[in-house]
Design brief:
Blueprint lengths: L7 H9 L3 E5 L2 E8 L3 E7 L6 H10 L2 E7 L3 H8 L4 E2 L8 E6 L4 H6 L3 H7 L8 E3 L4 E3 L5 E3 L4 H16 L8 H11 L3 E6 L2 E8 L2 E9 L1 H6 L1 H15 L4 E3 L14 H8 L4 E4 L4 E4 L2
Parallel strand pairs: 3-4, 12-13
Antiparallel strand pairs: 1-2, 2-3, 4-15, 5-15, 6-13, 6-14, 7-10, 8-9, 10-11, 11-12
Helix pairs in contact: 1-7
C-alpha cells in the first residue's frame, strides 16, 4: 500500500490548488514556484528515494529548498548521508494511529475504550449528513435543509459550517480547495457533518484517512466527533479500505502539546502506533 501522497488522486488535487506536479515512475514530485527566486521541491513518503531524479528536477525548477519525508529509517539514513538535515518542525505527522478494518463491527467496538464505545453506541446515527454531490444538513434548530445536486452548493455549505464552528482564529481551507479535493477523490472522499462538528475522510490504495476535522462548542460538549469518526470507519470498511489511518498523534520526538488532547481522543478507538522518520531539508542559497 502506498501513502496517499503518492497516489494519482492526490497529485491531481495538488495540481488543482497551485502546485506543479511531476509523476515519474509512480512517484510524485511536488513543486511550488516562486517568482524570481525559484521553487521548493517536495517528495512525501515515496516508495523509494530516487536521488538522481530529485537532483534533475531540482535543477530543472531551480529549487532553493528540497524537502523529503521518507517512509523508512533506512531511507532516512540515506538522506542524511546526502547532507540533508532533520527539521524540528515536520510537515507531515511523524506518528500516527492505525486501525485494522478487516474485522467485524463487533470486534471494532470491542477494541475501543469503554467511553468511546458508549458514545458511538454501535449504530449508525441517522441524522449525520453524508456529503457526496447532494446537500443534506440539519441546522441547530433541527430543521433539515436540502439543496440541489450541485458540488459548489454542497461544499459551500460544509465550508460555512466549518468556518462558523471554529471562528476566525483557526485555519479553514478555502472553499476552492474543498471542491478540488472532492473532484480529485470523487466517491473516495466523504464529508460528514453533525450539528457543529464535521470531518473529511479519504480512501486511497485501500487505506482510509481521517483527513481533516472540526468541532464547535456544542460538538465538544456532546462528543459528536466520536459519532462522526465511527461513521467514517464504517464507510471506509464498506468501501474496501483495509486500514484506517488517524493521520497524526502526539510524537514525543517532535513535541507539540496542543496535540495531546486529540491524541487521547483518537486512541480511544484502539489501533496501534506507527512512526515515521520525520522531515529532511536541504537548502541551496
Amino acid at each position: 500500500m502506498v501513502d496517499i501522497r503518492q497516489t494519482v488522486q492526490y497529485a491531481n488535487y495538488l495540481s488543482k490548488i497551485g502546485w506543479g506536479v511531476e509523476r515519474v515512475g509512480e512517484i510524485n514530485y511536488f513543486i511550488k514556484k516562486f517568482p524570481l527566486v525559484g521553487s521548493i521541491l517536495k517528495v512525501q513518503r515515496p516508495e523509494e528515494i530516487r536521488i538522481n531524479k530529485i537532483r534533475e528536477l531540482s535543477k530543472k525548477y531551480r529549487a532553493f529548498q528540497i524537502i523529503i519525508e521518507p517512509k523508512t529509517d533506512f531511507d532516512a539514513k540515506f538522506i542524511l548521508s546526502l547532507s540533508f538535515k532533520l527539521s524540528k518542525s515536520p510537515y507531515l505527522p511523524t506518528k500516527t494511529l492505525i486501525l485494522e478494518l478487516m474485522r467485524s463491527e463487533k470486534e471494532l467496538l470491542k477494541g475501543m475504550k469503554k467511553d468511546a464505545r458508549r458514545v458511538v453506541g454501535g449504530y449508525v446515527t441517522p441524522d449525520i449528513a453524508f456529503y457526496k454531490y447532494e446537500k443534506l444538513i440539519k441546522n441547530e434548530a433541527g430543521n433539515v435543509v436540502k439543496g440541489d445536486k450541485n458540488l459548489q452548493n454542497t461544499m459551500g455549505c460544509f465550508h460555512e459550517v466549518w468556518r462558523g464552528a471554529v471562528g476566525i482564529k483557526k485555519y479553514v481551507p478555502p472553499l476552492s480547495h474543498l471542491q478540488s479535493l472532492k473532484k480529485s477523490f470523487k466517491d473516495n472522499a466523504l464529508f460528514l457533518i453533525y450539528k457543529d462538528a464535521g470531518a473529511i475522510f479519504l480512501i486511497a490504495d485501500e487505506i482510509a484517512y481521517y483527513w481533516q476535522a472540526f468541532n464547535g462548542k456544542i460538538a465538544r460538549k456532546n462528543l459528536y466527533q466520536y459519532k462522526i469518526i465511527w461513521e467514517g470507519i464504517l464507510w471506509a470498511q464498506k468501501n474496501g479500505a483495509k486500514i484506517f489511518d488517524f493521520e497524526g498523534i502526539y510524537d514525543e520526538r517532535f513535541p507539540n502539546k496542543s496535540w495531546l488532547g486529540f491524541t487521547h481522543f483518537k486512541k480511544s478507538f484502539g489501533g496501534y502506533e506507527l512512526k515515521y522518520p520525520g522531515t529532511f531539508v536541504k537548502w541551496f542559497l
